[in-house]
Amino acid sequence: MIDGLLITELNKLTPGSSYIFLDYDGTLVPIIMNPEQSLADPELIEMLTELRSKYKLFIVSGRSPEEIKRFIPLDLNLICYHGACSIVNGKTYYYNNAQSFLGIFNEIYQSSLNLVNEFPGLRIYKKNLAVLYHFGLMKPQDVPALERVIVEISQKEHVDVYKGKMIFELRVPGVNKGIAIKNVRDEETALIAGDDATDECSFKYNEDAITIKVGPGKTSAHFRVNDYSEMREVLKLLLNNAEKRS
Ligand SMILES: O=P(O)(O)OC[C@H]1O[C@H](O[C@H]2O[C@H](CO)[C@@H](O)[C@H](O)[C@H]2O)[C@H](O)[C@@H](O)[C@@H]1O
Question: Is 23 in the pocket of ligand 1 (CB under 6 A)?
Answer without folding.
Answer: yes
